[in-house]
Amino acid sequence: MKLHWSSRSPYVRKVMVVAHETGLDKKIATVRSAASRTRINPDIVKDSPVGRIPVMVLDEGIVLTGSFAICDFLDSLHDNRKMIPADGPSRWRELELHGVADGTLDLLLSWRGEKMKPKAQRSEALCESCAARVQNCLRWLDQRAREFDSQDYRIGQITTGIVLDYLDFRFAEINWRAECSILCEWHQVFAARPSSKATEIVDDELS
Question: For residues 57 and 142, what is the distance between their CA atoms, to the nearest angstrom?
């Protein structure tokens, strides 16, 4: 299995955390692939026309685009506790959490993309909208985190932890710990997991 990989992408990190949690990380060949909103990477496009990461090329030639699809595939390769419940209320409850956490990542990426534009081209309305929605999501996740200790560690909690680390990485000005005390306490547990330590964000890329 070949994975288009970046040390800075939260979506790639989601895949790698799941890979470590399921014991499949050694079976994945990672290929460093820089993806940009403004430049097309021909190596990524050669495998997936979407041109974004993560992209995984399976041994039989099938190409999976997007972190959830890749995590779902990895989940099919092991017989231990699944990162994505197969069916029933637990599945929908997990997808509810994942949807909000993953949506928060989408908002943060859109916000960062807009902030990086020259001021004359930047939409302050979009930045303000993203900021407000991120705060709403963080409040929702903080309330949901009350249940984390009594639930299995799965893709929803994984994505939530990645959101918090990405905030520290790209949005240091947001003091999320001050308003999200439950998430703050839980984040220490997330950060201590071997899968989190093995996939920590490293800003070592040129683009």
Answer: 36
